[in-house]
Amino acid sequence: xxxxxxxxxxxxxxxxxxxxxxxxxxxxxxxxxxxxxxxxxxxxxxxxxxxxxxxxxxxxxxxxxxxxxxxxxxxxxxxxxxxxxxxxxxxxxxxxxxxxxxxxxxxxxxxxxxxxxxxxxxxxxxxxxxxxxxxxxxxxxxxxxxxxxxxxxxxxxxxxxxxxxxxxxxxxxxxxxxxxxxxxxxxxxxxxxxxxxxxxxxxxxxxxxxxxxxxxxxxxxxxx
Length: 224
Fold this sequence. Notes:
Elements: H1 3-9, E1 17-21, H2 26-34, E2 38-42, H3 53-59, E3 64-71, H4 79-89, E4 92-97, H5 106-119, E5 137-140, H6 146-158, H7 184-192, E6 193-196, H8 204-216
Parallel strand pairs: 1-2, 1-3, 3-4
Antiparallel strand pairs: 5-6
């Protein structure tokens, strides 16, 4: 059963609010709107990229009926604090995985991720955890925001590395759902994150190309 069907089955609709992450996955927001409820955006944890319990707690009010927890990049959210919060306030806690999740080749992706963890320099590598499938291997290119990350990405692509920006625009900045909210971790992640390839089909030569291309940059690039 999809998120929309679960919301409707729980009789969540007009007059209700549902807390959702603003970092990616517009589908969760769309499901809330289609159910007739109001999406309320919360910030993310900077390590997991999933809903931050503190931000969720700050968003709860008498109209709050549920939260939608999205597991990001193959890393499961830390559900314990969110379920505790949901139990305290009587909220439905729904889970959603990314729609393009790929479940084959997990062992190989984990092996590629371990290699990158050990060899990459000039970027901040993701924190591992039990159950991480590395659907995407997301690094951070910190600095002065988007120009640094985008310049880094352009250079990697020029060197044959098929990297991608995982979240171009947070949901709360999209015209249809725009809200002027202080979501600093969401904004920072949108400016700094970059997914580099760890696909199961990549061979040793491909992984060496990823590593050498990243490390040859020697850290951050200045915008052109």
